[in-house]
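Subject: Sanity check before I submit

Could someone independently write out the C-alpha cells for this chain? I want to compare against mine line by line before I put it in a report. The sequence has 150 residues.
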Amino acid sequence: MSDPTQPPVDPTRNDPTSSQPAGPSVPPAYGTPAAPAYPSSPAPGIQAAPAYGQPAAYGQNPYGQQNAQDKYNVLAIISLVSAFFVSLVAVITGHMAMSQIKKTGEKGYGLALWGLILGYLGIVSGIIFVGIFIAILVSGAATSSSFNSL
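---
Independent answer below. Compare away.
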C-alpha cells in the first residue's frame, strides 16, 4: 500500500533518493508580489510608532525585567529578622547590606538600619543582663557562705 501524500514513483529513474522530478523543471506560473510602498514619514500631526527593538518608554526594562531599584536587598531583610534572635548576626549582615545598597542602589536601607539598631540594642541589653546575672550570683554566693557559718 502506498502513501497518498508522497509523489508517484517513476520506475525508469535510476536515483530513488532524489526528490526532483524526472522531467525538465518548470517555473511556477505565479510571480512574487512586490512589497507595498509605504511613505517614509507619517502624515503631519501623527507620531510614528517605535521600531521593533527600541527600548520601552518611561524607563521600563524590556522583557519584564525588574529594575535594580525595585528589588530589596536580601541581607537587609536577614538583618532585620535576625535582630530578634541573634543580635551579632543582625549587626554583621546590617553593615554588609548597607555597603551593598550604596553600591547597587537597591531598596532596603531602612531595613538594614533597623536591623543594626535592634542588633546593637540586643548586644547592649545582653551585656547588661549578663552583668546583673553575675552580680546576683556573687551576692548570692556571699550570703550563702554567711548562712553556712552559723
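---
OP: Matches mine. For the report I'm noting this point. The first helix runs from residue 74 to 82.
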